[in-house]
Structure formats: structure tokens, C-alpha cells
UniProtKB/TrEMBL annotation, chain A:
Entry protein name: Iron(III) transport system permease protein
Alphabetical keyword list: Cell inner membrane, Cell membrane, Membrane, Transmembrane, Transmembrane helix, Transport
Locations listed in the record: Cell inner membrane; Cell membrane
Ranges that cross the membrane: 33-54, 90-110, 122-144, 164-189, 222-244, 274-291, 321-347, 378-402, 414-438, 444-465, 510-531, 551-573
Keyword Cell inner membrane assigned: yes
Organism: Xaviernesmea oryzae
UniProt key word Transmembrane helix: yes
GO cellular component terms listed in the entry, alphabetical order: plasma membrane
Membrane topology: Multi-pass membrane protein
InterPro entries per record: MetI-like, MetI-like_sf
Principal location listed in the UniProt entry: membrane
Pfam families hit by this protein: BPD_transp_1
TrEMBL record, chain B:
PANTHER family: THIAMINE-BINDING PERIPLASMIC PROTEIN-RELATED (PTHR30006)
Signal sequence region: 1-24
Gene3D superfamilies tied to this protein: Periplasmic binding protein-like II
Protein name in UniProt: Iron(III) transport system substrate-binding protein
Keyword Signal belongs to the record: yes
A Pfam family recorded for this sequence: SBP_bac_6
Keywords tagged on the record: Signal
Species, as recorded: Xaviernesmea oryzae
Amino acid sequence: MTSVSDTDAMSWSKDEPAKVRVPWHQRLQPANLLWLFLAGILVVLIIAPMWTLVVSSFTDAKTGGWTLHNYVEAYGKERHITALTNTLKMGAAVVVLKLLFGVPLAWACTRTDMPGRNFVRYSVFGAFIMPPYLAGVGWILLAGPNTGWINKIWHSLTGATEPLVNVFSFGGLVLVTAIGGFFLVFVLVSSAFEMINSEMEDAANILGAGPFKTAMKVTFPLVMPAIIGAALLSFLGAIALYGVPALISIPARYPVVVIQLTEFFSFPLRLEVAAAYSIPLLLITAALLGLQKLILRRKGYVAVSGKGGERRIVKLGRWRWVLFAYCMIVVSLAVIMPLFVLLLAAFSQSWTTGFSLDNFTLSNFHYVLFEHSSSQKALIGSVGLGIAAATVAIVLALFIAYIVQRKLLPFSGVLAFLAVSPYVVPGIVLAIGFYAAYALPPVALYGTYMILALAFITRFLPIAFTTSSAGVRSIHPEMEEAVRILGGGRTTAIRHVVGPLLKRTLAGGWLLIFVPAAQELSTAIFLVGPTTRVVSVVLLDLSEEGELEKLAALGSLLLIIIVAVVALGMRYLGRDFMLRRS
Amino acid sequence: MKHVFAHMAGIIPALMLAAGLAGAAEMTDSEKQLYEAAKKEGSVTWYVSQTTTEFADGMCNLFEKRYSGVECNVVRASGQVIFQRLVQELQASAVQGDVMSTNDDGQMLQLKEQGALAQYAPENLKDMVPVLRDMADKENYWITSGVSPLVIAYNTKLVTEAEAPKNWSDFTDPKWKGQVAIGHPSFSGSVGLWTILMNDLYGWDFFEKLEKNAPQIGRSVADGHNLVVSGERKVALAPLPLILSDSILKKAPIAVVYPTDGALLPPSATAIMKDAPHPNAARLFENFLLGPEIAEYFAKDYRYPLRAGVPLAEGMRPLDSYTTKSVETSEGIKKLPEIQEKFRDTFGI
């Protein structure tokens, strides 16, 4: 793999105006070395663990020789195929739901005069801060078939004995997965809406199109790249999530890929079979990315440049209340209801008893803060890892996105693919790749925070890359060309032009990574060592022991800390990335 | 004031008991030696699936109290998960756990055959209840560190004693449709053994019928217990000590049925890893598990104390007063993979 990077670095010189052969020592310019260095990091973060996986999928566990047997074992059972098709079905349903939640809300908050836009923005952000497995626990409390609050109320109202809603079902799985992730759709689509100026919409109006037709023919097509990108990320995020299926799909008896993978990872460990089982997911990502490219290539989408533009909001009249009602339904499902029951459970001795002073207690908080063996340290570890992973991933992604968008290297598409590819590797598989590559001697990182940090950086590189890439794409090269004309190098252009211009985007990206990294479960579950446990793992253990009240208390503490860091971050960066001009 | 005195009345015997304990727990010479060596190592890491986190933390606290200067780290997960982690570490030659405790002694036999365990006969073995001591490895590769019979739990608010199931096969009665909770044999060690036992008793037909009752499948047995406490499910497979301590100490609406076809008695086993990073602390810890502090701690939490002469908690029935069944260790290892596979095929997960 290093040989590829070498050729990349060499062909970098092709970008120079004069196509003469350059002596080797001149190729070792600081800029070239930087690209080499970046390529090296990508090798460490992505290629080495993935390569280990691919190789092991064709490796005979006993003899070490070449074999296809792992694939036979991975796909030779009907149940294993079912898990795969179930996952695709679930992923598709989640995408639809996330778009139904995210796109109208994004439009409502950025382009209309709907009341309560800031409230909706804050609530959507709340949905993002709440880890999917906590939302899952909230929904178990709400929609457990026999004791869920919704069902209890339904029973007492109607006298029925059958549950009205059951979280342990396909629908429950899809809903809980979607509410944990539609924030990404909201943010990506919102920022696209924000970037469009109204001149094109005005043109449509002048030519006689009404507001609805304008929205359909002009506004939405302009944000299509963002919607497609968001749909893609939503799908990949949904199929790779571990926590929600662990909570819901086992009782729902709806097997999905991540659960099937835990079977391969249980004793006797069949790493090779698991690797084989996860390869099609990688192929699906590649296909989806290709599809996205194909769709977007056919049309020019550069509607955003360094020039300012007027952006006007749509007056909805009485429809604004309809839209508001819809937004309220979405945020209730996603945040208000699960958060409310979760907080209530955190202060309850027994969550089923409901509100009453007798039932009130602070002992759950005392337990998780001072008595539980690992939760206190886990809180610190999670936050520290979140900060480290977000910072490193953003810096790295900015450089890669710049190379890719400006086509500074041949095969930059490969770099883009690499940077996005970790997203589809189910966290557990990524963890095992990392485990195989780095846990053992000579690297021997098992049981350290370093291996978690590296894995988190890799896992969130796609988000960092997507954010940075969208940002770089929105900047017209003319400004950097000005730097180049005046004699500045690429690095100067990045430092003094691209970086500052993207400060807000990058800050947003940082938060987009910090929050999920501080809650990360899917990768952490196999990489935590005895003394490096993170909150998510402790929470999952509590759920497995059925300690929902204590879980709710620890979850609430995690939420409070994340909110505080996010608030600090926003303050330090000067501007609130969610609350744009309104 | 009366209140205070009532409390005092309880405290005084407790104090006397504690004083008696302190006397009984004078350190022996070999213990002192181990302690000194353990202090140099600084800590012990305990991989445990035998108990809940809360209970294991309590045991660790007692250990740290007795042996100040030796830190005790609990790593708790369900049986198969802990085992898998350890096997992973063994393959990586990066063993981090010093001591492991599980409810599936089959795991211990496998580790022993791999040569992963250290041989050790703790001093306190001599004071153990003989029946329990004899359940362990004859060559001292592991000790018995507890017995938590798996029994039937039911919610007392939703089910009367008369209605409650009497034996395991009652779980398949259609009247419990949507009301049974069980664990998963691929996650929980003791559920694995239970699945084998049911198959031995009733054939796979038992699970075909159970499947029609749409049981809620959790990962561990503690999960099912809590589902019954909350009323989400009416009956479940659950470990006896959890049911007793919740119903007596926390007044939770849960009660126990000792199934007439036999409570499953999986002996919990504890072993020291051959490559334990802290071998002396590990020995000190294993010996401590059989000591008087833990015996008292077990008895208080409605577990069977391991030491002879420690009285059972009130409300606990002696082990020989009801039917219990065990799965032979080597038998368990042989049958488990196939049983897990069948379970997955039947329940689809």
C-alpha cells in the first residue's frame, strides 16, 4: 500500500506548470512530505485494519492458507442471509423515516416563517446529543408491551389488555434507530438550504411559479446533493449501529447483521467468518457512493460562491401552524418523550411505579457517581476520548477533503472512498480489525486509551470528511488561486484562506464528532480494557442487568456533561452553529 | 427516640459480630506473605460474570478493606462475553485478567485444557462446605465460588401463588403467552446450561412450544428477573438470590417457585489465569473469596455461603430441601455449541 502513496506523492509534481522531470531531492518538499504523511496516517487508520479483515476473510483459521470456506460458513445458513436482508430492509426504512423527519424540519427552520424555529432546532440538537441506546431505553420505558407508559395509559383508558404499541418490533427498531440519527439529515440539508440564495427562486417566481412549484422545481433540486448525501450516511449509520439492536432486536427476535456478528465473535471466535460476513457491506457502500457520484455528476450544483446572496424566507400563512404541529410531533417522538421518561426513571426507585414522592430518590445518582466500580472513570474517559477523536479527525479530514476536492493527486477518489469507508464497517468489525492489527505485540495497544482513540478517529473520519468536503466544495477555488498567484503554497492557502473560511463548518463538524464519540458503543465494546471502560459500555452492562433506573441516572450525567462541553465549545467558537441567522 | 434505640438494638449484635469476625480473620502467615507480594503488584483484575456488577463491586470493596494497598478492579459482563474476551486475550498473549469467575464451569474446563489456568489450592479450602468444595476441579485448577440455583420467578401483583407455574414445562402453557422472559444461551453461561437441561428433560419440543409463547429473550438472567419485578413479564427464569433479596430487602413484587422438575444448579467457578499479570494478588483474592467476610456477605444477600457453619439467611431453604439438577461439565461443553445453534434456529435470533 505504501507504494501507492509513493506514486501519489510523485505525481503531485504533475500539478506544477512545467512538466519536466524533477530530481528526487526536489520532490522532498515540505508539502510533498505532508501528503506522504497523510497517506501514511490513512494507511494506519484504515488500510491496515481493513486489509487485515479482508485477508482474514480468505484465510483458513487453522492452516493459515487461502480458502473460501469462511464465505460458505457465513452465507451457508438461511438465518444468516435473513439477518442480512433484514438489515437492508431496516436500513431502507430508517432512511425513509429519517428523511421524513429531517428534511421538512430543516426546510421549516431555515426557509419558512414557522413559529418556534429555535425551539425546534434545540430539540433536534437534543435528539443528537441523546445516544441512540438511551433513546432506546426511553422507548422501552414508553412502549414496553406490558408496562410501557403508553400501553398502561391505553389499558386504563380502554380496558384493553393487548398492547397498543410494542417497541420490541420492526417498527420499534426503525423508529428508535431513526430518531437517533435524523439530526445528521437535518444539519446537512439545513446547511444546503442556507447556502442557496433566493435569486433563483425569485427567477422562478417572476416566471410565474407559485411558492409550492418553486420549492419543488428550484429549492429542493438545489439541495438534492445534500439530501442524497444525508440519505447515504443515514443508511450506513443505521446498518452499522450496535446499541439499539442489542436492546431491541434481540427481544424483538429480528436478527440483523450486527447481532449475527456478535454470534461469530462469541466463543468459539470465528473472526475469519465475521470478516467474510462483513465484506458485502463494504461493497454496498462502494456501490452507493458510486451511485451518488453518478447522480450528482449529471448536473452542475455550484450555486454557492464567495459572493454574497440574498436569502428570503417563505411566508406560509396559516400553514405555518400545520408545519409547526408536524415538527412538534417529530421532536416529541425523538426527544421530549424518551428524555422525560428517562429523567423520571433516573429519580425513581422503581420506574414502573410512576410519579410520587415516595418513589423519588437520588440514590441512583449516588450509586453511579460514587459506588459503581467503573462509571466515574468511564465518564471522564468518554469525554476525553470524544475531545481527542473529534480534534484529530477534523484536522485530518480537512487536509484530505482539500486534496480530494481540488484534485491535487490522481486517484483522489480512492482517498475519498477510504475516508468514507469506515462508516459502513460495523463498529464491532472495525474494533476487531483494530484489535487484530494493533492490540497485539509488537504494537500492544490492548487495554490502552490509545487504541480507542485511534478507532474513534477512524470511525468518525467519514463525518469529518463529509463536513469538510462539503465546506471545501462550497469555496470557489478563485480565492486560493489568488494566494497561489501571490506566491503562497498550498499549505498557506489552507491555513490562511480555507481554514478560516471554514471555521464555522469545522466547528460544527467537531461537535458532530465529539457528541457521538463521547457516546460511542459499537467500536468500544470490544476495545475497552479492564481499566479503560467508557460510559456506553457501562450503560449497556447496566441494561443487560436490567438496572434501568441506574442506567437512566448515568445516562443523564453523560447527557449533562456533553451538553456542557457543547455549550462551552459554542461559546469559545463565538457562534452557535445550530442557531443561524433567523 | 424510640426509633434510635430500635436501631441501636440492631447495631449492637452487629458490632459484636463484626468484632468476632475481625478476630476470626486474623491473618495467617501464608496470607501475610501473599499480601506483601500482592502489595508490590498493586492490584488485581477480576473478570466476573458470576454476579451482578453491584454485588461484585461490594466483594471488591471488602477485599480492599482487608488488604489495603491492593486495588481490586471489577470487569463484569455476561458469561459468554467475558469468556470470549479472555479467549481473545489468550490468543493475543495479552492476558489482562488475573482472576475469572463464571457460572459455567465448562468454560473453566476448556481453559484448563488449553493450559490457560494456574493450579492453586487456597488455604481457606479447608473451611468450605464439603459438597461445594467437591464440585470444583479435582486438581485445583478452579474453586467453587458460589451456587446460584436458577429457579422460576413470578410477579406477585399479577400472579397468585396458585396460578404460578410449578415446573419448567409450565412455561409452555398457552396461558403464559407473551408473559415469559428467558435469557439467551449465546450470551449467558447459566442459560446455556439451562437450555441443555431442558433439552435433556423434555427434548427440543420444549423450546418449539416455548417459542409459540413468544418469550422475551434478554441477554442475561438478571434481565428476566427485572422484567418480572417491573411487571413487564409475569414469569421468568431467574437466579434465586436475586429473587430473594429483591423480595425481602426491597419488598419488590416477586416470589420464587422451586420447580418440581429441578432447579438448575450451576456451580460458579473461579480460577486464576496462568499468565495473570498479578499472580500473587490473584491468589490472595481467590483465597479471600472463600474467607469469612465473603461468606457473611453472601449470606446477607440470600446466597449460599461457601464456608461451613455460616447460617443461611432467613427465608432461604437449604440446598438439599428441594430438587436440583446439574449439567455435567464435560457434557455441557460437548452439547453447548449445538444447543446454541438450535436455539438460534428456533427463536430466529
